[in-house]
Design a protein that fits this description.
Elements: H1 5-8, H2 54-58, H3 67-70, E1 80-83, E2 86-88, E3 96-97, E4 99-103, E5 106-111, H4 113-119, E6 125-128, E7 133-136, E8 138-143, H5 145-151, E9 155-156, H6 165-178, E10 185-190, H7 203-210, E11 215-219, E12 224-227, H8 229-235, E13 248-251, E14 257-262, H9 264-271, H10 283-296, E15 299-307, H11 315-325, E16 331-337, H12 341-344, E17 360-368, H13 397-409, E18 413-418, H14 421-436, E19 446-449, H15 455-463, E20 467-471, H16 473-486, H17 489-492, H18 498-503, E21 509-511, H19 521-530, E22 532-533, E23 536-540, H20 549-555, H21 558-563, E24 581-584, E25 601-606, E26 609-613
Parallel strand pairs: 1-6, 2-7, 8-15, 9-10, 10-11, 15-16, 16-17, 17-18, 18-19, 19-20, 20-21
Antiparallel strand pairs: 1-4, 2-3, 4-5, 7-24, 11-12, 12-14, 13-14, 22-23, 24-25, 25-26
Helix pairs in contact: 5-10, 6-7, 13-14
């Protein structure tokens, strides 16, 4: 049975009289749905206090992950030698071999065919790789596991599907006309910085085509959302509704809400009234789907950066059950979402750095300090181009210092989301305060996205042994918008400065942040190498920041493993490490740089198991 509101926590929101006795009621004064608890403090984005969602509690049961439901798990091959290959080991010397032997889930030998055959019994099976290229399995250092599963069920109204804001409105109108009575219409991936038309999507634009059908749309960044009047009415929001801390409601000149919501603390007040959109009917199948998505693009390890934020604390139980079932085909490292800190600190959480196993393990503590630059909510030193605002601080600077210090002293790798240059200043100040307070410096603390980076900030990152991870899709998908509309050319040159960080001797990675941009390591490598812009493909965004193919490969293998505290087991093809690798149709170093992203992944192997073969999941 789902925990009731009285068993979990009372609502802290002033004015919620129905919650004063922990006996929450809906607007019609009937008992609130006990699957989700109180509408004002139910589990959405970690912003209003998370309760246990029943479908997630059920996912903790090992029986939910049975072979009867998910099929027989993949099995490791026996003693096998891969010969006639170009094996890019990504070891310390970036050496290239021609053969590799594996047995069970481990690598036994790497080198020339003669060296490898001499290191294994004659009974080994020899597989001819046909001259293909073998790399360590790619590591995606920043993605969002359950949002991928959840958002895939919503209508994609992003730039690849709808070229203009008018197209988005028309799509929402069509879906509203087809919606069953009482149902909401949900959209995702909207991004006016990439789609022709106005830079906002307001209720006045949606209402004429959607009428009384409630509509809610996520921005691609997941930092902004949009809704129509019907959704605001259901949520009970109007001009008198105050802006929550670290978030804001868009308003018309008269103060009325315009349907734009910046920050999870704002849009969760609408989403909480449509919790059916959050619930996954079949958690194990949804999890398997996310792993399959990773395997298709050659990812064998990924890092969930905000665990608990979409499905609540029982995400950990689901990860544990999945990892022990034998069905997990991509390793997961995860960072706890700070917005749930009261629950992670509770007696029942029982999680600390290193909790888990070789497939699912806690490594980080994730703090989101600002918003999205393309959504103009990233916190900047100076106002955005043509505007007076500088974005949003989701966490005040002094509070960020306290949070970083406390979690770093507890032994966590602290992972701070910081997009704008002022947000990066605040993050650096917070780490400096933590180290002055005695926090350990050797936990590979990270700055996520680290988007707009000045020279003096790079020097501070180096001094404090921090490590950035760049959302390289910012350069490719949004580069033209940053240059021409959001920042101007001078500041846009500071975006995603991988080469400068490389030259400073700082370990760095690149990531997709899916669902913000799609998982695809080869696409990310191409973006980092070329820095060509999707909407202006004839030009690079600051070509001085282009990295080499080898540097980009390392950022998604050896360095990413280090950044995710897994370099002792994955990230390079060396004897003793786990047999996680990918077979590519072509060598990324040998094709034109603008064709790297098109290289086919032929096979993906995880723990000595072939988990993907081109065109067929086996």
């Amino acid at each position: 049975m789902a925990e009731t509101i009285s068993e979990a926590r009372h609502c802290d929101n002033a004015g919620h009289d129905a919650c004063s006795e922990g006996n929450c009621r809906d607007d019609d004064n009937t008992q609130a749905d006990d699957r989700f608890g109180c509408p004002c403090c139910a589990p959405v984005m970690g912003e209003l206090g998370m309760l246990s969602l029943p479908h997630m509690a059920a996912a903790a049961n090992p029986a939910a992950w049975s072979s009867e439901r998910l099929g027989e798990p993949k099995r490791p091959v026996g003693l096998t030698v891969f010969a006639n290959a170009t094996i890019i080991t990504a070891d310390a010397g970036f050496s290239v071999a021609e053969a590799m032997a594996i047995e069970g889930d481990r690598i036994l030998a790497v080198g020339t065919l003669e060296e490898v055959r001499s290191a294994v019994p004659d009974t080994a099976t020899i597989l001819d790789a046909g001259g293909r290229t073998i790399l360590p399995g790619f590591i995606e250092p920043h993605m969002h596991f359950f949002p991928i599963a959840m958002l895939s069920r919503m209508a994609n109204v992003g730039a690849l599907e709808c070229g203009s804001v008018d197209d988005v409105i028309a799509r929402m109108g069509l879906l509203a006309s087809q919606a069953a009575p009482g149902n909401w219409v949900m959209g995702r991936q909207f991004d006016p910085s990439l789609q022709d038309g106005p830079d906002v999507l307001t209720r006045d634009m949606l209402d004429p085509v959607t009428g009384d059908v409630p509509v809610f749309i996520f921005n691609a960044s997941l930092h902004i959302a949009y809704c129509n009047t019907a959704a605001l009415t259901i949520a009970g929001l109007d001009a008198s509704t105050p802006d929550p801390d670290g978030a804001a409601f868009g308003r018309n000149a008269d103060g009325s809400l315009n349907g734009v919501m910046q920050g999870g603390a704002a849009f969760s007040q609408v989403m909480v009234h449509n919790l059916a959109a959050m619930a996954l009917d079949d958690v194990p199948t949804a999890c398997k789907h996310v792993c399959d998505r990773a395997s298709e693009v050659g990812i064998t390890t990924f890092c969930d950066q905000a665990t608990g934020g979409f499905q609540g604390p029982n995400e950990l139980a689901a990860f544990k059950a999945f990892s022990e079932s034998g069905h997990m085909t991509a390793r997961l490292r995860y960072s706890l979402f700070d917005a749930l800190e009261s629950q992670w600190d509770g007696d029942d959480a029982n999680v600390s750095f290193g909790t888990g196993n070789a497939f699912a393990r806690a490594t980080g503590w994730k703090i989101v300090s600002d918003g999205s630059n393309q959504g103009r909510t990233g916190l900047q030193r100076e106002p955005y181009l043509g505007r007076e605002d500088r974005g949003l601080a989701y966490v005040a600077a002094d509070d960020l210092k306290e949070k970083v210090t406390r979690r770093a002293k507890q032994g966590w790798q602290v992972v701070v989301h910081a997009n704008g240059d002022q947000a990066i200043d605040n993050a650096l100040d917070a780490f400096e305060a933590a180290f002055e307070a005695g926090a350990p410096r050797d936990m590979r603390h990270r700055i996520e996205h680290c988007s707009i980076l000045h020279d003096e900030q790079i020097a501070r990152i180096k001094e404090m042994n921090l490590s950035p991870s760049f959302l390289i899709g910012h350069v490719h998908y949004w580069g033209q918008a940053f240059r021409d509309e959001i920042f101007g050319p001078d500041k846009a040159r500071l975006l995603g400065r991988a080469k400068s960080v490389q030259q400073a001797g700082i370990p760095w990675t690149i990531h997709s942040d899916e669902p913000v941009s799609e998982m695809g390591p080869l696409r990310c490598i191409e973006n980092a190498v070329t820095r060509r812009m999707w909407k202006d493909p004839d030009h690079r965004l600051n070509g001085d920041e282009c990295v080499t193919v080898e540097e980009a490969i390392l950022s998604l293998t050896r360095v990413a493993a280090w950044q995710c505290h897994s370099d002792h087991e994955v990230g390079s093809l060396e004897p003793g490490k786990l047999a996680d690798f990918v077979i590519l149709e072509k060598d990324p170093r040998k094709v034109p740089e603008d064709e790297i992203g098109a290289i086919r992944v032929l096979e993906t192997w995880s723990a000595g198991r072939k988990v993907f073969s081109a065109g067929v999941n086996e």
